[in-house]
Amino acid sequence: MSDQPYEYYVDIVTKRYFHGIDNGDMDLVMGCFHSDASLREMSSNTLHDGYDAIKEMFVALFAAHSRIWHGNFVHTADTRECAICSQFSVEVTSIETHELVRYESGNRFYLEDGKFRSVFVYMSGETLLK
């Protein structure tokens, strides 16, 4: 059982993790993860295992997009299981093609000691998380 309130889960997901992604703030994003965390993009079964692998994925994501936006959030937090499920919209603009692409996505975050232990990403369309 968590000693963190419901609001903590919404805060780490929106005000730290996604805010950091949308603003290219690698320190803010990576500060949400344990060193041995994992992130799995379920649609393509792509696993990023460990801090360095997750960071490498975000380096590539930031390098490929001039704009990233997450919004229209709906959260369900389970403080007993230290988890939060978030559904949201995503807009990204490619640096290469300048094309704007929209996605719908859902993530399941499992936390331990206030940081992400594992993240499961479900997204429409082709994965951006290679």
Task: Describe what you observe in this structure.
With 130 residues, the chain is α+β, with helices and mostly antiparallel strands. It has one domain (6-123): Nuclear Transport Factor 2, Chain: A, CATH 3.10.450. 28% of the residues lie in helices and 47% in strands. It is built from 3 helices and 6 strands. It has a 6-stranded mixed sheet, covered by helices on one side. The chain is globular. The mean pLDDT is 94.
What is this structure, in a nutshell?
The chain has 130 residues and is an alpha+beta fold.
Adjacency order of strands in the biggest sheet = 2-1-6-5-4-3
Could you name the ranges where pLDDT drops below 50 across 5 or more consecutive residues? none
CATH architecture classification name: Roll
Overall geometry comes to globular
What is the strand tally? Answer: 6
The count of domains is: 1
Helix count, per DSSP? 3
State the end-to-end CA separation: 33 Å
* Category by helix and strand content: alpha+beta
CATH class: Alpha Beta
Secondary structure topology:
Elements: H1 6-22, H2 26-30, E1 33-41, E2 46-49, H3 51-64, E3 65-78, E4 83-94, E5 100-112, E6 115-123
Parallel strand pairs: 1-6
Antiparallel strand pairs: 1-2, 3-4, 4-5, 5-6
Keywords:
130 residues, alpha+beta, Nuclear Transport Factor 2, Chain: A, six-stranded mixed sheet
